[in-house]
Amino acid sequence: MRKTVSLLLFFAMVLLLAACGQAGVSEEQGQLLSVVQKTAEQSKTEMETEPSESVSTGKQEEDVSTKTLVVYFSCTGTTELAAEYVAGILGADIYEIVPEVPYTEADLAYYTGGRADQEQDDPDVRPAISGSVENMDEYDTIILGYPIWHGQAPRIVSTFLESYDFSGKTMIPFCTSHSSGIGSSAVSLHAICSESAVWMDGRRFEAGVSKESVQDWIREIGIE
Ligand SMILES: Cc1cc2nc3c(=O)[nH]c(=O)nc-3n(C[C@H](O)[C@H](O)[C@H](O)COP(=O)(O)O)c2cc1C
User: What's the 161 CA to ligand 1 centre distance in angstroms?
Assistant: First the structure.
């Protein structure tokens, strides 16, 4: 808009100068002419130097660049450590899935018929999450970490996936476990997420995984 006004002003002044040149000018008209001339030159400089509104500035480029969110669920800190490494290496934001009702030690004692066992027995259970990600739209890559519970992701991860629209986003799962691989746990999550989310293969990490191993994985999948 500013550029258009400058352009119009510039041409108006060029015409005025031409008209004055033809007619001959008095001393007062000459002073006026000199002011007009300076303003015209200033307008011309502005037109030449003002950046076009369609050209991205550094800030705009930052805004449209890919943004990654590391999301994790962890009851005893193993997945949390790996998630923190991932976020630290990538300089990504991090979000913890916090259960509305925390899991006690008794809840987590597996093969006892406790809370976690019961939840994993029923694929329709959706434990409530405390808090939410306000700006999910800003992220185009989600790195999702969880512990393996009876071969699958904890049901609260399903609650998380059903809480947002992941259409078009890249989903990268990873898990931690005592010994099981990631197996079908990630594939089971695809069905409860938008069809247009793009899932990459997942990776399992052992307890006490090193930052170097996490770094190697990030290099392997090419998201560094
Ligand atoms: C209810 C429950 C079920 C589990 N099932 C498995 C399993 O099937 N295979 C396995 O290797 N580890 C299993 N584990 C162990 C966890 O996957 C492992 O300790 C994990 O790294 C814990 O992650 P966290 O510290 O982030 O909570 C289970 C743990 C719990 C609480």
Answer: 20
Contact residues of ligand 1, CB 6 A cut-off: 74-80, 108, 110, 116-117, 147-151, 176-180, 207
Q: Is residue 54 part of a domain?
A: no
Comparing C-alpha atoms, which of 92, 98, 99 is closest to residue 214? 92
pLDDT at 130: 98
Backbone phi and psi for residue 77, each to the nearest 5 degrees, phi listed first: 95, -10
> Lowest mean pLDDT: which of 64-73, 127-136, 174-183?
64-73
Tell how far the Cα of 2 is from the centroid of ligand 1, in angstroms: 62
Both 87 and 8 in one domain: the answer is no
Total of domains in the chain: 2
Single pTM value for the model? 0.76
What is the crossing angle of helices 78-90 and 211-221, to 10°? Answer: 60
Q: CB count, 10 Å around CB of 170? A: 17
**pLDDT band with cut points at 50, 70 and 90 for residue 157:** very high
